[in-house]
Every structure is written in structure tokens, then in C-alpha cells.
Amino acid sequence: EGPESFPPLSSEAAVRVLQGRMKGIQGHCNSCYMDAALFSLFSCTSVLDSMLFMPFPLCDRNVQGILRDEIVNPLRRTGFVRASSVMHLREQLTDKGQCSSFTNAEKDPEEFLNLIMQQILGIEPLLKLQSGGQKEHECYCYQIFMDKQEDLVVPDVQQLVERSFLSSDLKLVEIPSCFIIQMPRFGKEYKMFSKIIPSLELDITDLLLDSPRECCLCGDVATLECS
Fold first, then answer.
1. What keywords is this UniProt entry annotated with (predicted)?
2. Which of 24, 121, 163, 166 has CA atoms 20 to 30 A from the CA of 53?
3. Which helix (H) or strand (E) holds 24?
């Protein structure tokens, strides 16, 4: 008999199970970066459920089991994960990684994702990006970098991704199977935006390399692109 699995929460179930006091992932000892990442990746979507079940070549089954049985399944079943479960995962990451501070320090979510996806589970990179016609590079998530823009007061994710790609001269080499996006910096000292509206769908037509698009003047297939 294989490991138990619970499906991600859909709209009505998500509200019922996740709303209210003592819901979500309990924070402890600067765990917010990991709590937010795990909640986003697993609570309401199954796109990355292969992380929980697939026997990847480099896969550490112990870490995979903790992630599945102590964090994702309780989150989907009861809407609550206790801090001790996340600490158990953090202790394992400290053992497996080259970094000794996963149990107490605040980290960048990208550092956590790279460690667990690449070094512990051995998953292939999810994104292929190309910058300014240079050699393509692979990664697991995309972090939005941009200068403060006065015309964006309450932006949505679509606007942020498009402007970030534009300012970095980036293109997606292919349609990603999963597009993990890290929002702009949001710390104690500095907040770029007080609120960001989630885009429920993301149109990546203009972000794809060599994707056929229509001319905004005549409607035929475009041959030139103006930034």
C-alpha cells in the first residue's frame, strides 16, 4: 500500500478548511519564508505533487515523507500545520544542506526551493530563461526584480511579471510546466507595494521567445517587436 494522499483544496472546500483562527502553517523562529512557500505550492494546487510521491533519482525519501505526511496532508485535511512539523523539515534541510541556519534564520524562499528541489529531491529545473539573446539558463523559480514605479500603486501579478521581464530583457524559452513567481521584496524595513492583487490567470504570450503574435496595427502575424 502506497503513501496516503489528500487532494488539494478547491474553491468552496478551501474557504471552509483554511479560513479562520489556527489555520494555515504555524510560524516559529523566522519560518515565514518557508511557511508561505509551502502554503503557496501545495494548499490549493497539485502541480507539484510529484515532489511528494515520485522516486526521483537523487530523492531523499525521509525528507519527501516529512513534506508529504507532516505538512501537505495535514494542511489539506485539516487546514492547519503545527510549527513542530515545519521545524522537523528545517532540521532535515540543515543536515542535508551546506547551510547550518535553516532552523533559526530568515532565508530567501529561492534558497529553500533550490535546496529541496535540486539537491534533496533531484527535480529538473522548471524554467528556461534567456536574457538579451544570450545563452539560456535554467532555474526553479523566478523572482520579480524592478525599480519602484510611481504609476503602479496596487499592481497585479500580470503587470509585475511583464514589467520585470521587460526591465531585465528576459524571455521564457518554452512554456513552463510550473511557473513559481516570487513577489518583490517585502521585509520589516522596506515594502515596495502595500498590496499586490493575485492574477488568477497569467498570460505569458508576450513573454515567450519567438512566439507568433499579432501586429497591433494591422492584425497580421508580427515580424518586429517593440519593447
1. Cytoplasm, Hydrolase
2. 24
3. strand 24-25
Residue 216's Cβ-count burial label (10 Å; 0-12, 13-18, 19+) is exposed
What pLDDT is stored for residue 187 in this prediction? 65
Q: Which of 69-83, 91-105, 123-137, 152-166 has the lowest mean pLDDT?
A: 91-105
Which parts of 57-147 fold into alpha helices (H)? Answer: 61-66, 73-78, 83-96, 109-114
Residue 53, amino acid: F
Boundaries of every domain in the chain: 11-120, 127-222
DSSP strands (E only) in 65-189: 80-81, 127-131, 137-139, 142-143, 170-172, 181-182
The C-alpha atoms of residue 227 and residue 224 are separated, in whole angstroms, by 10
Strand partners, 182: 143
- List, for residues 93-149, the tens digit of each pLDDT value: 888 766 777 888 888 889 999 999 988 888 999 999 999 878 899 999 999 988 877
